[in-house]
Structures are given as C-alpha cells and as structure tokens.
Amino acid sequence: MNFPVIEPFDAALTASLRARVDGLAKPPGALGRLEDLAVRLGAIQNRIDPRIRRVRACVVAGDHGLNAQGVSAYPSAVTQAMVATMLAGRASVNALARACDVEVCIVDAGVDADLAPHPRLRNEKIRRGTRDATIEAALTDDEVARALAAGIKLAGEESDIDALMLGEMGIGNSATAALLLHRLAPAALNDCIGAGAGHDAAGMARKIAALERAAARSNVTAPLDVLREFGGLEIILLAGIVLGGAASRRVILVDGFIASVAALAAIRLVPAAREYCIFAHASAERGHRILLDVLQTQPLLDLGLRLGEGTGAVLAAPLLRAAVNLFSDVATLDDVLSGRLG
Ligand SMILES: O=C(O)c1ccc[n+]([C@@H]2O[C@H](COP(=O)([O-])O)[C@@H](O)[C@H]2O)c1
Ligand SMILES: Cc1cc2nc[nH]c2cc1C
User: Fold this and answer.
1) Active site residue 309
2) pTM for the whole structure
3) From the CA of 176, which ligand is nearest?
4) Secondary structure E strands in the chain
5) Catalytic center at which residues (predicted)?
C-alpha cells in the first residue's frame, strides 16, 4: 500500500520561529512549554505565522470481536449507544467541545450495528466489528487497507481545518490497543494491559488471559500484519487520519491511550508522522506511560482522564489557540525597550 508523503520540518524555519519567540516581550523561556508548542505549530504548518482556524475532533467508532471473551466490563452494544448519544450532542466530548470551540465529527468505522443515516455521522463502515482476535485474524489485509485509506482521505479534506483531534469510541478497544502496543512499541504484554473502562479483579484476570491467547496465536511484528491480526477498525482509521493529516500539514492532537496507539501505528508505518503528533494528555490507563516514553514525548495536560471520545484532546484546543496568539499579539522586546509602543 502507498502512503502519502510526509515532509520533515524545515530546519531554517524552525530556527526562525524560535528566534521570534525568544524576541517577544518576556524573558526567554518564561512561557515554558507553550513556547515549544508555538514553534512546533509553525514547523508543522510550515508558516512563520501559524494559525488555528477550524479545529475538528474526529471521534471514530468500532467494535471488537474479542469482546466476546469478556475483555471489557461492558457489552459491545454500548458502542452504538454512545454513538447515538454523541449524535444527540449529549456525550462528554460534546460538552467539552462546546466549551473549547471544537467541531465534532463522528465516524462509523466498524460499529456492530446498522446505524441510521444522520447529518453528523460519517459512514466509513468497513465491516460490523472485527473478528475475534483470540481465535483468528481480526481483519483481512484488504480491510486494513480500506480503513487506512478512509482515514487518509477524511484528513485531507477542508483545507481551513488546521488541527485534527483523534478520538474514539469502542467497547473492548483498550484490549486491542494493548496488543498493538505490545507488538509495536514493543513492550511486555502484561505491562500494556490496564483496566480500560473499569474492571474488578476477576475482569482483569479474564482480560489478561484472553490477550495472552490472542498474542500466542500470532507472532507478527510488521505494522500492517499487527493491524490485520488484532484490529481494530477505529484505531486503523485514526492511524490513516494521522498520515493524511500530517501529509496536508495539519496539527494532529492525540487523545488518550487508544488514540495514542493509533498514532504509534501511523508512526511505525511512516516515521515522519511523529513530529506532527502532539499528545494532549497523560491518560490514567496503564500502558500510556510506556507509549509516551517509547515516543520520547511529554503530553500537554495531566488531568487523570481515562474516558476517550477525544475529551483530553478537545481540552487542549485552547492551548493551541493561545500558542499562536503569542506570534500574532505579543510585542517584541525591542519595541518595548525602545518605546515604540507609545
Ligand atoms: O483513551 C483512553 O485513555 C481510555 C482509557 C480507558 C478507556 N477508554 C474508553 O473506554 C472504552 C474502552 O474500554 P474497554 O474496557 O471497553 O476496553 C473505549 O470506548 C475508550 O474510549 C479510553
Ligand atoms: C458509558 C461509556 C462511555 C464511554 N465513552 C468512551 N468510552 C466509554 C465507555 C463507556 C462504558
């Protein structure tokens, strides 16, 4: 499969952006990591004057065949129910998006139900849920390729969207994400498994045993093979959004554990995508720390969130707007010291 070309950053422009930030009316470095964010946004957009016009959260939904093994405390039907809740504007992500001026786009990549058409629902369904990865490959090569292509295409649309956020909804996807992290980091499987949406001790034991069976079934490590063996459709479509968004020089703001695993998969497919991914927050899900360490990145926020839906990414949108305002609104130190502001 052919992936879009993702350009590395222009080193001279990055140096100019840093010089601009250093020359603003403040002691150098006094705005801490917000300064790094401002430079990064300019480097991503390849502009000395980065801008954040429209911001869109893509909440991609899918179901997981391995949920039949009891890897989640919740039935797969909750995925469909939460998609309906998001379409009604009543999920957490909707409330936070209204507060942070973020558009929400809900995408069906593989919900195990026939969803009625809705003006705010994008139908990219590849199939109704993945196959049970403890028994057989979750997907075919063709299904993986089609999910990636759908994400790449979606991310390339509407050129005035400057930042794309990765969000997801999929009961059982913390189990799938643990398998992907185990193979793609790589890291010991046990360290990648957390409580997901919540588990008691018996539930955790069931989840660990099922994931050990799935991991023992296939020893693949190449990224496309890993995605075929373990899924899931929403994670793969999100990886496509990373590739398409980076190729069109958009900021990719990554939500929690599952969205971060999607970003990792994209980065394993096209390493240049890494610089375009900004990790919004540190999820409380076990395994997220491993992923952040592997990618040597520090998230913007740490609020103890572990919801998904794109909630953490949406909350970081104001930081993007704040960072670009430094370039557009702040006087230079030279102007201040020479009295040129009047
Ligand atoms: O993104 C996270 O950090 C995160 C951590 C734990 C759970 N979730 C959400 O909870 C669901 C997955 O949990 P589970 O237990 O069903 O695998 C899925 O809908 C995710 O959006 C999300
Ligand atoms: C209710 C509920 C809402 C969610 N949102 C994202 N993952 C979720 C999981 C559950 C169970």
Assistant:
1) yes
2) 0.99
3) 1
4) 54-62, 103-110, 121-123, 161-169, 251-254, 277-279
5) 309
